[in-house]
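Exercise 7b. C-alpha cells:
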C-alpha cells in the first residue's frame, strides 16, 4: 500500500523533470545564435554636425551569445519604413563582440528621424537591438572670395592679397586654382590645397611679371559638397601692367668755362610720371667721343609721380677745348638721356677757341663751292640738249617707277563692318575678305563717297547683319564694362575700349565675341 501511494508522486516528479530539460535544451542549432547589445543599447552617430552632402555613420556594438558564428547587419529607415541605408554583414564568432555600421548621406536640411535595427539571417536578435534616433541636418556650407589688394610694380612684380571665406560649420579642404587671362586666353599658373575654417582666411599670391589682363581665382570643394554652383566658384579682377616714364633735366653748370683739372657742378632733376615706381639705377655723364665715364652716382627708386634732384660733380676736367657728353639715367630695362656740351677755358685765358681747325674749314668751303659750280654746268648742258626729230622717235627710256606702276593691278579700299578698319584689296576681287584686326570675315565692297553716305551706311549694315547671321560664334553685348557669358550668365569684365574682342568664359570655357550694344536678353 505504501508503494502504491508513493508511485503517482514519483511519476509527476519525473514528468516535470523531463519538461524542464526539454525547455532548457535548444530546439535546434539556430536557436543557440543569440545577439545582444555589448554594453549600451543606444545607437552611436559620428560625423556631426552634419550638412547636406556630408556622410554620417550610425554604429552599435553587438555580442554573440550563441554557440555558432553568425552575421548581422545594421539597417536605417525613415518614418515611412523605407530603407535608407543597409550596412554590410558583419560575422561574429561565439562569445565575441563587433561593431556594426551603416553610412548615410542626408539629401535635405532639417530634423531627420531614423529607425534603426540589427537583423540577422543566422539566429535570434534581441529586441534591444532596435530603436529610434534623430539627427539635425544643416544646409551645405558656402565658399566665398574677395580681392583685398592687387599691386603690380617693376620691383616686386604682380602681388595679389585676397581672402577666402567659409560659412558656419566644419572646417573643409579646398583646392585653389589661380589663372591669368591675356587677350581672352586663360592659363593656369598656380594650384594648391588649403584647409578653411569657418570665417575668413588671408591668402597672398606672388605672380612675377606676367602678360595678363585679368586674374582668375577658382575655389573647389575637396571631398564635400558646397552650396555654390560650379559657375559661382570663380572670381576675376582686372590688372594693369606697370610702366614708368622717366625724364632728366639739367641746370646751368658751374663754373661756366672750366679749366683743365677743375670739377664742374651740374644740377639735375629726375622725374617719373608713370604708374609704377622706378627701379634703382645710376646717373652718369658719358663722353660721346670716347665713351669715357666722367661722373657716376647711384639713384634710388623714385615713386610714381615723384621726382628727385641733386648736384652731379664732374671732374677732373679733361684737357679739351670742348666736351660733348650725355647725361644718362639708366636702370634695369630702361634708360633716358639728355645731351650736354661744355666749352673749356683756354690756358692763356684769352676768350674762346673754335672747336675745329680754321684752315681745314676754309679748304672744305672752297672745295664745296667748286663741286657746286661743276654740277651747275653739267645740269645746264644736259637740259639744253636738243631731242631727236625723227618721225618714229619715241621716249627712249621709261621710268622704272612708271613701268612698275603699270604692272601693279589697281586697288580698291573696303571697310571692315565690325571694327571700321580700312583694307586695300585688288579691284577685281569680289569674294569675301578676312579683317586682320578683328578676324571677322565679310564681303568686299568699295568705300563710298560722302554723297552716297546713306547708301554706304545701309550696305555696311547689311554686310554686318550678314556676318552676324552667318557666324556661329555667340555674341555678348552691353553698354558697360560688365557683361554676361551667353552660355552660363557668368559676369565678366571686358573694357569698352577693347571691343569688339573675342573672349573666353573662365567658368564654362565658352568662346564668344564681346561687343558694345544692347543685350539680347
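Sequence design result:
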Amino acid at each position: 500500500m505504501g508503494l502504491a501511494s508513493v508511485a503517482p508522486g514519483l511519476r509527476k516528479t519525473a514528468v516535470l523533470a523531463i519538461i524542464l530539460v526539454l525547455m532548457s535544451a535548444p530546439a535546434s542549432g539556430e536557436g543557440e545564435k543569440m545577439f545582444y547589445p555589448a554594453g549600451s543599447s543606444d545607437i552611436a552617430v559620428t560625423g556631426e554636425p552634419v550638412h547636406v552632402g556630408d556622410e554620417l555613420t550610425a554604429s552599435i556594438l553587438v555580442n554573440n551569445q550563441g554557440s555558432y558564428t553568425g552575421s548581422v547587419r545594421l539597417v536605417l529607415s525613415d518614418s515611412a519604413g523605407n530603407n535608407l541605408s543597409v550596412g554590410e554583414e558583419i560575422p561574429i564568432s561565439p562569445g565575441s563582440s563587433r561593431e556594426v555600421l551603416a553610412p548615410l548621406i542626408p539629401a535635405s536640411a532639417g530634423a531627420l528621424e531614423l529607425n534603426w535595427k540589427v537583423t540577422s539571417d543566422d539566429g535570434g536578435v534581441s529586441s534591444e537591438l532596435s530603436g529610434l534616433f534623430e539627427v539635425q541636418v544643416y544646409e551645405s556650407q558656402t565658399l566665398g572670395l574677395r580681392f583685398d589688394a592687387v599691386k603690380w610694380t617693376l620691383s616686386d612684380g604682380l602681388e595679389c592679397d585676397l581672402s577666402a571665406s567659409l560659412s558656419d560649420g566644419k572646417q573643409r579642404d579646398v583646392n585653389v586654382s589661380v589663372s591669368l587671362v591675356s587677350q581672352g586666353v586663360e592659363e593656369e599658373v598656380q594650384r594648391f590645397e588649403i584647409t578653411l575654417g569657418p570665417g575668413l582666411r588671408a591668402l597672398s599670391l606672388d605672380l612675377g611679371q606676367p602678360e595678363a589682363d585679368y586674374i582668375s581665382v577658382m575655389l573647389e570643394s575637396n571631398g564635400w559638397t558646397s552650396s555654390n554652383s560650379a559657375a559661382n566658384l570663380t572670381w576675376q579682377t582686372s590688372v594693369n601692367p606697370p610702366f614708368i616714364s622717366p625724364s632728366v633735366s639739367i641746370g646751368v653748370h658751374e663754373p661756366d668755362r672750366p679749366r683743365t683739372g677743375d670739377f664742374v657742378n651740374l644740377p639735375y632733376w629726375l622725374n617719373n610720371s608713370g604708374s609704377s615706381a622706378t627701379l634703382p639705377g645710376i646717373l652718369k655723364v658719358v663722353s660721346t667721343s670716347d665713351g669715357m665715364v666722367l661722373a657716376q652716382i647711384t639713384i634710388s627708386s623714385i615713386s610714381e609721380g615723384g621726382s628727385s634732384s641733386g648736384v652731379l660733380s664732374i671732374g677732373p676736367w679733361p684737357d679739351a677745348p670742348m666736351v660733348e657728353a650725355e647725361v644718362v639715367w639708366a636702370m634695369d630695362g630702361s634708360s633716358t638721356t639728355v645731351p650736354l656740351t661744355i666749352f673749356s677755358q683756354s690756358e692763356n685765358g684769352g676768350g674762346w677757341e673754335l672747336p675745329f681747325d680754321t684752315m681745314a674749314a676754309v679748304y672744305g668751303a672752297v672745295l664745296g663751292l667748286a663741286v657746286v659750280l661743276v654740277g651747275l654746268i653739267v645740269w645746264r648742258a644736259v637740259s639744253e640738249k636738243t631731242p631727236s626729230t625723227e618721225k618714229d622717235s619715241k621716249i627712249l627710256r621709261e621710268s622704272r617707277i612708271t613701268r612698275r606702276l603699270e604692272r601693279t593691278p589697281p586697288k580698291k579700299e573696303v571697310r571692315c563692318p565690325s571694327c571700321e578698319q580700312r583694307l586695300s584689296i585688288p579691284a577685281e576681287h569680289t569674294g569675301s575678305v578676312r579683317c586682320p584686326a578683328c578676324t571677322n570675315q565679310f564681303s568686299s565692297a568699295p568705300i563710298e563717297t560722302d554723297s552716297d553716305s546713306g547708301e554706304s551706311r545701309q550696305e555696311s549694315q547689311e554686310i554686318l547683319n550678314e556676318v552676324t547671321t552667318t557666324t556661329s560664334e555667340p555674341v555678348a553685348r552691353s553698354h558697360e564694362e560688365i557683361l554676361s557669358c551667353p552660355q552660363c550668365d557668368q559676369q565678366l569684365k571686358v573694357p569698352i575700349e577693347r571691343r569688339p574682342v573675342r573672349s573666353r568664359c573662365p567658368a564654362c570655357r565658352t568662346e564668344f565675341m564681346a561687343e558694345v550694344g544692347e543685350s539680347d536678353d
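Instructor comment: The mean pLDDT is 80. Helices lie at 2-24, 358-383, 400-407, 453-470.
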